[in-house]
Design brief:
430 residues, two-stranded antiparallel ribbon
């Protein structure tokens, strides 16, 4: 019998089954994103690492199984003293697994890549992509090392668990981000993963891949002799795993590359990143009725700006003081939900003014502070609903006519700012 060079020296099912699982997992995880709004290349660059989190676990388990089956000492052709068990055979094992599983993963990303290309906003960020793909290979090698070290089927769950923990740690603490595949969140247009962080991750995974491959070969040879380069590689990996906990890397940086596209209505200027130009008309359509329903032109912001245009945290944090409402346009966002709520939230005071600790209600056990907070919540809900003419009302403003509410706001704007209005004072309530 002859084996295709695409699989040799592994049995085809040992490669095709995990590759099929990886492909199915990737397609399933990304299929729902194909119809998302505001997709961009920066987001896709980050998703290469995010979506690899579980597929690489499958690849590591497959590599551990291959090592456990084909290098265990009970096999007559796998004795450590045999020349054929030099570095070529074990590295060939893991190369086949990595090649098939990584290829399946990249094929699974093709539909999402096509969806992003059709919108074409921003530019790809190669450093996170290279880091994620290198990490995929390195963690698969780590799984193979588990199989070589344990020499039994117990290596498969050990490898799966170890790699799963490695890929999940960034969700626990930011320091682990430099040692894993992804950020705790995915940046989008206007943001970039920090270059030092991305380069450190890439270097760490290159070291890990080198040390794991070298150690796998060393464990399979007899007699085992340490070499200076091998020891250096292992020590370098251990050192590199500690350094991010001593010096924290910035996760992302602002990168507002590109021009802005603007429109103006009723004294409010609306601006978005050129990559989000298709969203501008809808933002204006949803936000303008909210500001108009409030009535006071002085209460409306001077500008509504896309967060992708921001150049720093201070600009966003102090936006209120400069009359700027920042709106985060991101992949998968729902403008019909987010724009009206953000616009109404700009006009209505925060519930903290009421002293109710964010709690609002008009029930029998509600405190006076909570009852007054319920007026603000009701007003914000009513204002947000103005984006959708004909929508049924709800809460204490349900029966109010728009002109009546506008006049009432004009008479009570100062009291609303201090959260002094009781529900019983609303003139349209029976």
């Amino acid at each position: 019998m002859t084996t295709s060079p695409l699989f040799w020296p592994l049995p085809p099912p040992l490669v095709l089954v995990p590759a099929g699982i990886v492909l199915l997992m990737t397609l399933t995880a990304t299929w729902g994103q194909l119809s998302w709004r505001a997709l961009d290349w920066v987001y896709l660059s980050g998703q290469v690492g995010v979506q690899a989190r579980l597929p690489v676990v499958v690849a590591a388990g497959a590599a551990a199984l291959a090592a456990a089956r084909l290098t265990r000492p009970s096999l007559v052709f796998a004795q450590s003293w045999q020349p054929r068990l030099g570095r070529d055979v074990p590295l060939r094992h893991v190369t086949v697994v990595i090649g098939w599983c990584l290829s399946a993963y990249l094929v699974g990303l093709l539909p999402l890549t096509a969806a992003v290309a059709s919108q074409g906003a921003g530019t790809p960020n190669p450093v996170p992509v290279l880091g994620a793909l290198t990490g995929f290979a390195a963690l698969t090698l780590l799984g193979y090392l588990c199989g070589v070290a344990l020499r039994g089927l117990i290596a498969v769950p050990v490898a799966i668990g170890l790699v799963f923990v490695c890929t999940s740690l960034p969700l626990v603490a930011d320091a682990w981000t430099a040692l894993s595949l992804q950020l705790p969140f995915t940046p989008s247009l206007g943001m970039r993963e920090s270059v030092p962080l991305g380069l450190y991750r890439l270097g760490f995974f290159l070291l890990l891949a080198t040390a794991a491959a070298w150690t796998s070969v060393w464990l399979l040879r007899a007699p085992r002799r340490w070499s200076a380069p091998h020891v250096t590689a292992v020590v370098a990996v251990a050192t590199a795993a500690v350094l991010p906990h001593l010096h924290a890397f910035p996760l992302v940086t602002y990168a507002p590359v590109g021009s802005e596209v603007c429109a103006e209505r009723e004294g409010v200027r609306y601006c978005v990143h050129e990559g989000h130009a298709d969203e501008l008309a809808l933002i204006v359509e949803l936000a303008a009725p909210v500001f108009a329903a409030y009535g006071s032109s002085e209460a409306a912001p001077a500008q509504v700006r896309d967060h992708s245009l921001a150049t720093g945290d201070d600009e966003v944090l102090h936006g209120t003081g400069h009359g700027v409402l920042w709106t985060r346009v991101h992949p998968g966002w729902d403008p019909y939900q987010e724009v009206p709520q953000a616009s109404a939230g700009w006009l209505v005071p925060d519930l903290l003014v009421c002293g109710s600790e964010g709690v609002a209600g008009t029930g029998g056990e509600a405190t006076p502070q909570e009852r007054r907070a319920a007026v603000l919540v009701g007003l914000q809900t009513w204002l947000a609903s103005r984006s959708f003419p004909g929508s049924p009302g709800a809460g204490p403003f349900a029966e109010a006519a728009p002109d009546e509410v506008r006049d009432w706001i004009g008479r009570n704007e100062d009291r609303l700012a201090r959260c002094e209005v009781e529900p019983e004072e609303l003139p349209w309530r029976p």
